[in-house]
């Protein structure tokens, strides 16, 4: 009995993982190598060449999505760090109110929030029409259906996921270590770069995980705010699946995307130091 | 396309009502959950169904009894509504004793098909006894896969008597074996006369003057038809070489930066907001915009426009098929069809409704009278004979053709 005890203990979690993660993944992997169509049925042929086919066919969208994800993640860090810093160190007794304000947009549907940008950014909308009448931008200038609009939408929608982990990391920084640094004649800037920033990096790492992955796979922002040249891989997967009922290529695309992201994340974790990563993930 | 004049009236009416702006949009976004379901579908092998034998139809219906309930899945804003109730459905219940559960379950054909396909494949009840599917790739698939119940036309006397000749025996469903039309609508060009000169030709969608202000549709079948019209090709008779010619034309339009976006239902907002000036458009949407006082024009281009039909059909898993069939016949009574067209404003399959709408207008007063007359006289709802002659359907595609077709046209709208 004693020998099996550890296995019994992981059974609930293991079962959960098996049912909700492993089984669907295996199933999807099997779909990805099938051939056929929805009318005549799909047959398992272990057609691995499909991975090469979809990657060459949709390579542009893959790279574009990764690029958008990367840029949007960097912009998120730039915007989120000062905000998290300010709440953590200057928030005082109102910290929880500020955090609530950060989360408040989540009380409105994701789609609705994105659609509302369409109205704000419309060619003759609230933002652009005053600029146009002042002559600051040319008449045919537009933001909707451009890369800027898509990346802006991504940043806007996922920003709280970056703020929160950074805030948590900063909040944990013991004020006494900052005092100690200052006692040792560190300037404020040095105290920040040598003490606070390194201590908050796990939070940044967690934030990157929580934003880069969903941003890269996102299709709502490109769908609503993007134009013909902003199609992301998520849009392709969605339409392969639902419009074309081409399940194998959609599954293969999903798997390729997942593999690419896992590789990217592990490379990133390695570069940053695995311990930090595990620690961050454990939070 | 031959059109008899009485049908015109019907056609005209039906073109009016915009379906909800959010219909297609919302569906796309619901895609994730549908995708989950669709995944399950992969395990189930599809099977091509043999065409039903005459006896099979009789066999199926012989044992079916009226159950007194009907579950109806329809698009949003696609039936008469007063204070949240539907007078035509209440009348149906009063006349037949069949209670109706009406659900606005359909936002978009592909997403709805994605949701029901796995259930139909495994023979599980989808929760509806009658549903409305647009002609095109998905309806053809549903027929090919044997997902629809063949109709017993001996129980559809009103359809036989009152349906326009033109809607009978459509190319996608010979002899109305599986479907009868709910309404039809047109795809043409809508434009804002403030920025755009009078439009008569599809070539105006390629006019460099409107660079970045042109809207096209995302649906490959819709956009393909307009590409073919521009090349002078009749979609019904088109070949793969024709598709490539049309695709090259569309690709050029995109590469030249003319196209702002490939839209779903959201083109209406973009047009109203001024993001686009000229766009492919559905007749009913534009009729509504005009009725609301917007200065927007709708034309069926001289090279051609598209007519599409939303069809009533019974899924093979229906629990109350006879009640569904009863309803399908019921709506073909001119009085009921009039109630529907006055609310839906798309093209009705029952031509005799035009006179009834005018009769209602004569009885009404004030704004009601005005709007009913507007309905009966709008060229968007009752297009001229000459316009009707230029209308084409979506090309009927076999599964093999569909793959080629999509591989030709989809890369244009999804770059």
Description:
The complex is a heterodimer of chains A (283) and B (415). By secondary structure, chain A is an all-alpha fold. Chain A has a single domain, classed as MetI-like (MetI-like fold). Chain A has helices at residues 5-32, 49-57, 59-90, 95-103, 110-121, 128-133, 147-171, 175-183, 188-217, 220-225, 233-242, 247-272, 274-282; strands at 34-37, 41-44. By secondary structure, chain B is an alpha/beta fold. Chain B has 2 domains: 5-184 and 308-352, Periplasmic binding protein-like II (D-Maltodextrin-Binding Protein, domain 2); 186-307 and 391-409, Periplasmic binding protein-like II (D-Maltodextrin-Binding Protein, domain 2, 3-Layer(aba) Sandwich). In chain B, 44% of the residues lie in helices and 15% in strands. Chain B has 18 helices and 10 strands. In chain B, strands 1, 2, 3, 4, 5, 6, 7, 8, 9 and 10 form a 10-stranded mixed sheet that branches. In chain B, helix 5 links the parallel strand 1 (69-75) and strand 2 (99-106). In chain B, helix 9 crosses helix 10 (240-255) and helix 15 packs antiparallel against helix 16. The longest helix of chain B has 16 residues, at 240-255. Chain B is globular, with a radius of gyration of 21 Å. Residues 1-45 of chain B have low confidence and may be disordered. Chains A and B meet through helix 1, strand 1, strand 2, helix 5 and helix 10 of A and helix 2, helix 3, helix 6, strand 6 and helix 18 of B.
Give the topology.
The complex is a heterodimer of chains A (283) and B (415).
Chain A: H1 5-32, E1 34-37, E2 41-44, H2 49-57, H3 59-90, H4 95-103, H5 110-121, H6 128-133, H7 147-171, H8 175-183, H9 188-217, H10 220-225, H11 233-242, H12 247-272, H13 274-282
Antiparallel strand pairs in A: 1-2
Chain B: H1 5-14, H2 22-29, H3 31-42, H4 54-62, E1 69-75, H5 87-96, E2 99-106, H6 109-122, E3 130-134, H7 137-144, H8 157-162, E4 179-191, E5 214-217, H9 220-230, H10 240-255, E6 259-263, H11 267-273, E7 278-282, H12 283-291, E8 297-299, E9 305-313, H13 321-330, H14 334-344, H15 353-363, H16 366-377, H17 385-389, E10 391-392, H18 399-413
Parallel strand pairs in B: 1-2, 1-3, 5-6, 5-7, 9-10
Antiparallel strand pairs in B: 3-9, 4-7, 4-8, 4-9
